[in-house]
Each structure stands twice: as structure tokens, then as C-alpha cells.
Known about the structure:
By secondary structure, this protein is an alpha+beta fold. It has helices at 3-9, 12-35, 40-67, 130-158, 165-171, 177-210, 214-225, 240-253, 269-283, 303-309, 366-370, 394-404, 424-445; strands spanning 88-90, 95-97, 101-104, 109-112, 116-118, 123-125, 286-290, 322-329, 332-341, 344-347, 353-357, 361-363, 382-386, 417-421. Strand 1 (88-90) and strand 2 (95-97) form a beta hairpin.
Amino acid sequence: FDFNMAQHFFNWGPMFAFFLISVIFAAVLKSHPFVYKDNSTSGDIFFFLWAVNVGVILISFFKAIYVGPGNLKKGWLPKNKRDIVHLQYCNKCKGYKPPRVHHCRECGHCVKLLDHHCPWINGCVGNDNRLYFLTFVASVPIGCSYSCYVIVVYLVNYYQTVYAKRYAQMMGHRMSIPTLILCMAGAAFAGAVALAVALLCGVQIRNILANKTDIERWSEDTANMRMRNTKFVFPFDLKWKENVKESIRQCVNMDGLSWRVKEGTTSYDLSKEVLYYRHRFAMSRHTFTVKKTPSWFGNDAGFMSALRALFLNKLSVKAGETVHVWRKKKDFLYGEKVFVENGLYKSARPLRRGWMPQVCLEEAGSEKQKLPYDFRGDGIHIAYNDMPPNNNSKGNNKGNNKGNSEGANEVDDARAVEAVVLNNDSFEAALNAVEDSNKDTSANSD
Length: 446
């Protein structure tokens, strides 16, 4: 008996989904014999096909829960450890995330090809269970549409028999009040579920045909926002026929890591763009020191400040602490607490972000402002540079990289993002430290 799997099934999401299925199923069993009473052969055929559809719904529903999305092993490292410059680091799982892997806050795991967290299966839709989930969301609208049709026809023909005895005698059947309530609930549930799940099915089909998740669509849009000569080429889109084959292959093999890519691209292209965006965001942070502890009422800047504080998510800070801020609203600044470790600013854990009164903060000194932020989370100081939008600035970009770092790489393509290691000695030491710590984490988890 798998207690963890039982917890997945006996959760409000799967239990409510099973309740809806049960109500619709019971309503159809009550309605179906009277809808096809004049043509029992056709009724038997349609009922058999409907029953097969219900079986497909239940099997794919439970398989999507049982198989799971495909969680990445905690403390994962690439075969070539120097490839970590192209990978995001997960502070929760204490390991690197391969391309197309994202962390789910609800599940607490890094998931291969994470599409979304679905409360109805009490888990994520990912690489390993996406075809089962697609089968589920494709069969539900079919079954619910037919169920809604049968129940509505039964209600229209027999609802008067509830209170008209003579009409009931003429029809040869009288509908009871509990049956009326059951069928009304079944019709409402079936119609609403058919519409909602049909929309979800369309999204899933679109993602499989394009070989993209909604998260990756956002990353692609972010990549196209920066100045570039050419549009960003999504590396995993192989045209719809090959995308379908690749999705089936990855799901059947339960791999989710070794994806085929377009010619002229690499599997790291999207990860580089995300890291570049995070690097640019980190550069927009401003360092402040808390000069006095804000009051609990938020009235440090006066009465109006206290009123605004009622509608803000305030961050609790104390005098002497260091914070990073990147947003401003009236007399409040938004940010998080940070601390210094090995010459880098790191976010305080557990991660807390919120608003602070500006009058309680003062800009940090120049020495503190110079320290970079560890936006990767692994303690390795790496910058990400992109190609200027015209060839004339190529030389300037190269010169600036050489002036700011050792071993900087010249970017040869307007589409490319390159990692620049700012200190090779520290990089090698950090590589060994990360590898050792992740080995210990993996050993403990095993």
C-alpha cells in the first residue's frame, strides 16, 4: 500500500472530480432508458459507446494521477559540469534545472516539461503524464456533451409527470422529486464541465502541436522583447508532425531531458534567454539600509501613509538590515531582505517580499552598491551579455567584456546570449563546491 499515492487520490481535487462524474453518471442511468424507449437498439448502441467513453475518462484520470508528471531527481547536475553556466539553479531542490524543467511550488519538486499544476488530479501535468491528461480532457467534453443531451431530453419530456398524475399515466412513467433534482444537477454539471474542459483540451492540443508549454511561451515572448536583428528561434519546435512524435516518444520513454532541437539551435537557447532576463532584472535592483524599524501601523510618513499601508503587503524589517528594492509606489518601496555571502548579495530565506516606508530606508554606501546580486542562486558570479543590434557596436561590446572580466566570450550572433565568467578561479572553486554539496544532497535524499 502506497500511502503517498493514497494521499494524491484522497484529496479535495480528485474527490470533487469523482463526485461530479458520479452525479452525471447516475443522472444518465436514470434518463437513458426513457430517451430511447421507442428505439432500444439505437439506445443500446449509444449507451455502450457512452459507457466506453466513461471507462476511458476514469482510466486516463487515474493514470494521470498515478504516473505523475516526472519529477527531476534532487541535486541534479549535468554530465559536463561546466554547462551549469547555461542552467538555472533551484534553491528548493538544491540542484540545477535542465532545459524545459521548472519548479512547482505546490508539489515542491522540479518537474520535467511542467505545463501547469492541476488541482483536479492533485498534481502537475508534465512530461510523463501529459498524454494521459490529454486523453482525459479530450474524452470528458464528448461524454459530458452526450450526457447533457440525454438528461435535458428526459427532463423536457417528463418534468410535468412530477405533479400531473394524468400526464404521468399517459407517458407511462412518473419522475420523482429526487430524480428531478439529480437530473437538474447532472445537466448543469455536464454542460459546465463540457465547456470548461473543452477549452482546456484546446490549450493542450495547441501546446503539443507547437511543442511548447505556457511557461515556455512566456519565456519566448520575453526573449523577443530585447533588441535583436532576428526573431528568437524556439529550438524545440520541429513542425507539428514531428512535435507530436517527439511528445509521444518523450512520454512513453518517460525521459523529458534529451529533446531534439532545430538545426542551428541548442537546447540551452531558451535557458540562456531566461538567465539574461534575470541578469538584467538583477542589475535594476537598488541597495538600501534600514535606518530605523518601521512602525507596525505604517504611519512613519504621516496619516496618509498609514492609510495606504492598510492595503499593502508590508515587509517586516529591522534597523541595520540590508534590502534590495526595485519598485516604488508613493512613499513606499517594494523589495526583499538580502545578506552578503562570499562577496555576493543573496536573498534571505524563507523568501519574503513586500513594501517598506521610504523614510525608514537610506541608500547604501558605494561599497555595498558595487556588490553584485546572486540572481542564479548557486553562488557563482556570472554575467550574461547579448549582441548589440548593429555590427558597428561589435567591437565596443568585445572591448567592454574584456575590460570587465577575464576570459570573456565575444558574441557572434544577434540571437545569442553568452555567459561571461567574471572570475575563473572562483568559478572553478564554486564548481567543485556545488558538485560536492549536491552529491551530499543526493545521497541524503536516496
